[in-house]
């Protein structure tokens, strides 16, 4: 029954070693199963050498095929949300009131919902707002209108200097600026780190007494977007003949502080063609409104929602499609919010619906105010009587535009957006009551008829725009000038050396 | 060197058993450490037998000392937030515009910020809104004004029947209704389950085609609050001489749907003393607005934030202090939100600040509209001319009041609140422009002076209130009548049997 002591010891050793081996193998298995492949270290193997002026996105794309491929997807215009998306939509057709609100300004001719980054050059060439310049010195726009459209802007600023870049007409750089918004706008060519290339943003930080170089990595994931997705204007006083992009942030980023800045030297983008009010045109204060909403306050970066992480072939990378987060709710909202897609979409649209409801009401009031002011002028009102009224129209429409022009603002900061719109309605209330009194004084004590602007075409005719003429001119420009620009650009780019490893 | 086989086996056995013992003891230790004491089963040992008409909170408190003790803490008025809290504040003094907005209605005499549940009886007796009834049949208020103030309401409804409860004047039940809002209002005396005791809420559900008995446990944690924290009115048409509490939810819970309900039979709470507009007074649509905000949409119940769980002596129970969640951020907000107290308080106040900013603007416009309407009447405007204007004032002020009167509404649903206020401003814009035209027609083409209402006293004098008289009468009532009520109530209650186990 009892074995010898020695054979017994050998048996224990065999069991011991066998167990150790089994446990070791199990360990390997477990490690293999639990390994987070997506987070394995990415070994960067550059294929081409990228220089500081490389504006061609496809060259960068050779080193970063996944980022480039998702950037290319900004060409896809099939994704639409209820209010926007990546589609190409005529905003004036959708809402002809805009034609009236921008009467006397080029926006009344043509204004489209934004498409993806890769369309930027195509869109800025084709919009009626850039006109049909048949020579390098023809207007209507300055070179500044290229600033947010292309990687070539970084290159040209490097080559010609910032001041020279801002000089002359838009057409002057038509053959230079051909690559749409891309890699060079946000990345350092050597380190690939996020970098601010826009002098305007660097200066805006300086004006606020801050150094943008001290921004955190997480802040940079929004600040690179803030190079363009902000309120800005053309500063023509800095250098004779140059139109510098300037962010009006000196006093702060709120709608009131920016207004205070503009008011401080009576800046106006244009004089309204109907009411004669000195108007401000909000660009797209996306960053400003985002900062005032809960996501901005929680330091959720633009990239967290608009450039979500994707796993492919064991590699984790940030999508460069920069589209509505609603396209990839599983990769965007649901990273933090444990709600169904349906619920989250509803939450987003609820916010939009409420802001849009109020925005539309203010639009109607502004349309009325412009025509009431015109009636007052027509009846003989004088400048002294009209001064406060024109200021009221300016202030109210500025508030409307700040919210209306901000991409996604109704979601980014619905509470601030509604506060701003409410103030806009409050101001126009006061203005229209003063108008009613002036009209009564000049013998017109009844409602000024609301114009027939159910269609864009009616509205544009009403403000005297010769749209067929603009379109004919534009088509000629597209047919004759753009091919010339493209040919020159191709010749230039073909001479750029590319060093492949 | 080698021991005998037998002694070696004995040694293994000793090691084996010793190890087993050590592991067992370690297990006991671990269990003791990790045991979640707070969640151990609560063994309910009743001390008194509670019957279905037991309105005395202190009797229930014998069985539930912790819940009772926290309920008693609603007497503590030392906690204040920036906008409210548990303190006793004179809202008319804080904002004298309210006196004008409620001119002709009892709210213009006296309106205080809410105190805790345990103060309810004291507050309703002392407010000038209940007047100074020196007999059981004296006015101004019906018995209905007790409805949300006391557990005795449940008892009296059980004893006299709901219809009879609603009959007669407020003073009729002065000696019956003495125990403030408490246990019997929300709990079943036998099972302690949450139960709806308010006939108005049960009927409101029926009117919407729903059965409140099918509400989930989580829904009940809000619905018991919705017995009172809602918009309601007194339905005097149902039974002759009775004022039934009725929730105007038949068409829906939104501000527009409730208005549609009221408009459908031209209901008005009162006629405005200055403008003559047929007004609606919003009560406190807390539940309605909460349901339209993100917490309501996420099914976070009232109790989750206002009655947080507390651990004491190894027992977990729900606090019955029902105070602002800002008093216990660690037990309320921070259960879900991983932010610092400071950040969370800022987020709450940011919402309030923005809603209050717009609310105040609308108040000013409404004050102006009332006085402009008065001016129009004074100048000879006729009813036909004024009809639309009075409707505009009604609709605009209804929107203002819906947001202003809702406890915590600016936090519960800031987006919906701002949407409503914006609509209020939009409506009053239109109304005031029509007013300006009428005034001009009657020869008054200038601004109607804004009244001096910097102080409550000025405003009350302006609308012709004899405040010293009201206060003298009230003091007499408090000195003479209330002690009689108390004495009768004590005699009655002393006869109620209490069975102790």
List keywords for this structure.
homodimer, mainly alpha, two-stranded antiparallel ribbon, 22 helices, 6 strands, globular
Walk me through what this model shows:
Two copies of one chain form a homodimer. The first copy, chain A, has 22 helices and six strands. The first copy, chain A, is mostly helical and 501 residues long. The first copy, chain A, has a domain at 7-41. Chain A has a two-stranded antiparallel sheet with strand order 1-2. The first copy, chain A, has a two-stranded antiparallel sheet with strand order 3-4. A two-stranded antiparallel ribbon of chain A has the order 5-6. In chain A, strand 1 and strand 2 form a beta hairpin. In chain A, helix 17 packs parallel to helix 20 (414-441). The longest helix of chain A is centred in the C-terminal third of the chain and has 39 residues, at 341-379. The radius of gyration of chain A is 29 Å and the shape is globular. The termini of chain A are far apart. The mean pLDDT of chain A is 94. The interface between A and B is large, with 38 and 38 residues.
